[in-house]
Design goal:
The protein is an alpha/beta fold. It has 28 helices and seven strands.
Length: 682
């Protein structure tokens, strides 16, 4: 079963996209571009396949296994027929001459921590558990998801692929494992732009992106929210545009640009912005280059553009029709208007920016640098058409949550970097010394030793936190309390991630500088590897065979570990009491509850594996006093138990509940952490 999950992971992240690229044959890029393109196209292709198969009621394991078998046969044939080589070149002189590039590469490498730490994880955050994964389970059950609030389904449909191949939704690790890749591949895009353009501004954008991402969105990198994913697809669209030649537009490149922006639209609604921008760019370039392009190519480009637009918008069209018929609903009006209680646009923007980590001043600095990028021809159109519109959309309509700013972060970083470049070109370039090599820095042995000691101290502090079971007593908590700003108020999970990144980055940098000191004594200055496609295929087969052997012995343990982690969702103390009761007594009717986590706990799903408000075992009450409360006692005719919070138990219904407890109509089983579990006696 674990082997099938691993195959599903490759299906989601590489195989169909790589095959599509080999069939389309766009302008050749480097291996880094091929990896990123294959990843993004695989997600898009899987979505369209799953959507189509679900519409015709054929989304079943046998169909997916057949497609995967055909793909693998094609790959084997393709690799055996053609001479494919993969090159890895490591030149220490190149690294030594550009410390900025080296630092960027090391930081990007450190970001794989998020991928590694996500192994064997489950969806434990609110939206991923109750929305995105619920929709993934609907796809897995061969059903078009309902109650989607107009949210697109590229991410949930791909998650469902892992469930479909393993025939269980209880193993969530392979689905969740793809989420950190969106942040990692965003860094790849900035790195590759630098490698192609030879412009250090793109490295600056990478560093700024990391700073802003860790400051505003650290908690969302690996959780299962779609915001970083849509920001990746949006930046990928810009990346593809920047890599085109204005005087010689390739139709295949245009198709890729529209496909990437289509993936953004199908990931989250904010993707419509980059989709419209990309369509406008393609149309403008077709008109601009109409004399250089044949009518056949223009007709092909227009036909493909119309086809992709129709395929992309079909989900939205169907859902809008369902909403108008009352079969689904949209919370767009509530989120863009009602939630602000009449606040003006500028008030929303100011309140939203003030709620960001780092406060209004840091955000204002980012906007100022972005505005300065207007003076740079290379970034002006990006800042005017993408960066600032996205920021204003967030500030005016979605600033109730800082998470909604995430789609604009790559473009803020892009514009800020070019803003800094504009300042440098206008005021500092003539005075700055051109440092091209580490030798120009004239580093003393003392400075290098000081740098290593500093990194060692940071690593020691980090390990103090990681190894300390009681995080409140760790060294960094103690020192920050002296300053009057207790880090203990900061989310512990974020703290651990941030420290782990710092520790790994420090270790990498320390090792690198030690290497520079000892370089003259090392025998090799260059490292070169050449692998053929057959060698890569053989290595892949060996890995899969080894994985199959390991999975044979590990599958049972893997399932139990995943289920145990899911049992801890919400409040583990309440869950433990519920499981103890369920083991001793039969729950033969519905449970009326505002404790939503119980609906996603393993063993509490209905017979169709549905969760949350689609779970027929529960009657869902509102958990917010912003919505008029319903008396839970009016719903007990078809129910056997109540699991309600103090919001109901100690409210205007409390006297009625106490009367029924006194009369014996209700029996209190337990109360814990503000929740009360009662049996309805009939």
């Amino acid at each position: 079963m674990a082997l099938l999950g691993l195959l599903a992971f490759f299906q989601i992240t590489f195989i169909p996209g790589y095959i599509f690229l080999n069939i389309l044959k766009p302008q050749k890029g480097n291996k880094l571009q091929t990896i990123v393109y294959s990843f993004s196209l695989s997600l898009l292709i899987n979505y369209f396949l799953i959507y189509f198969f679900t519409l015709i009621n054929c989304y079943r394991p046998c169909v997916i296994y057949t497609i995967l078998t055909v793909e693998i046969i094609y790959l084997i044939y393709f690799i055996m027929k053609r001479r494919i080589y993969f090159y890895v070149t490591f030149n220490t002189n190149a690294l030594e001459s550009n410390l900025f590039f080296t630092t960027a590469v090391l930081i990007t490498t450190v970001f794989f921590y998020f991928f590694i730490s996500n192994i064997n994880a489950v969806f434990n955050n609110w939206d991923p558990a109750f929305s995105w994964n619920r929709w993934a389970i609907d796809w897995y059950l061969n059903e078009i998801p309902s109650l989607t609030n107009l949210y697109p389904q590229l991410i949930p449909s791909n998650w469902s692929l892992t469930y479909m191949m393993m025939q269980t939704h209880h193993i969530q690790l392979f689905a969740k494992l793809i989420m950190p890749l969106f942040a990692i591949f965003t860094l790849f895009l900035f790195l590759d732009l630098y490698l192609k353009k030879k412009n250090i501004t793109y490295l600056s954008a990478l560093i700024i992106y990391i700073v802003v991402l860790l400051n505003y969105a650290l908690a969302f990198i690996k959780t299962g929210y779609a915001d970083i994913a849509v920001s990746f697809f949006s930046l990928l669209t810009l990346y593809a545009i920047l890599n085109t030649k204005e005087d010689n537009i390739n139709i295949k490149d245009m198709i890729l640009i529209i496909l990437f922006s289509s993936a953004a639209v199908l990931t989250k609604q904010i993707g419509w912005h980059i989709f419209i921008i990309s369509i406008g760019w393609v149309v403008w370039n077709l008109i601009k280059n109409r004399k250089k392009t044949t009518k056949t190519n223009i007709l092909l480009a227009v036909s493909m553009l119309i086809l992709i637009v129709l395929m992309t918008s079909s989900w939205y069209i169907v859902k809008i029709i369902e909403i108008n018929k009352g079969l689904d609903f949209s919370n767009l009006l509530f989120l863009t208007h009602d939630i602000y209680n009449g606040a003006a646009f500028i008030e929303r923007f100011i309140l939203g920016s003030g709620s960001l980590q780092g406060g209004t001043w840091f955000f204002a600095l980012l906007l100022l640098l972005s505005a300065i990028s207007f003076f740079n021809k290379k970034s002006r159109w990006v800042s005017i058409t993408i960066t600032f519109p996205l920021v204003l959309l967030w500030g005016f309509f979605f600033s109730y949550d800082r998470r909604n700013l995430i789609p604009s972060i790559p473009f803020i970083a892009y514009s800020c970097a070019f803003g800094i470049s504009s300042i440098y070109d206008r005021f500092l370039k003539r005075r700055a010394k051109d440092i091209r090599s580490i030798k120009d820095l004239h580093p003393s042995r003392l400075s290098l030793i000081s740098f290593i000691i500093l990194n060692a101290v940071i690593a020691a502090v980090g390990f103090t936190i990681i190894l300390n079971k009681n995080i409140q007593n760790s060294l960094i908590i103690w020192t920050s309390n002296i300053k009057g700003k207790p880090v203990g108020q900061f989310w512990n999970a974020q703290l651990i991630d941030l420290v782990a990144i710092t520790v790994l980055a420090s270790m990498f940098m320390a090792i690198f500088y030690i290497y520079l000191i000892l370089k003259k004594k090392l025998p090799y200055k260059n490292f070169y590897v050449k692998l053929s496609g057959k060698q890569i295929l053989a290595a892949f087969l060996v890995i899969m065979m080894s994985a199959s052997i390991v999975s044979y012995f590990y599958t049972g343990r893997l399932i139990s570990q995943q289920i145990e982690k899911q049992k801890l969702l919400g409040f583990p103390a309440i869950n433990n009491l519920l499981y103890r009761y369920k083991d001793r007594h039969e729950i033969d009717g519905k449970t009326i509850t505002d404790y939503y986590w119980v609906t996603v706990l393993p063993g509490f799903e209905d017979k169709n594996s549905k969760i949350f408000n689609e779970n027929s075992n529960f009657v869902i009450l509102s958990n917010s006093d912003s919505i008029p409360l319903v008396n839970p006692l009016d719903l007990i005719d078809d129910a056997s138990h109540l699991l309600i919070s103090d919001m109901y138990y100690n409210s205007k219904y409390s006297q009625q509940i106490q009367d029924k407890l006194t009369s014996g109509d209700l029996t209190l089983i337990f109360h814990k952490l503000g929740y009360h579990f009662l049996k309805i006696n009939k």
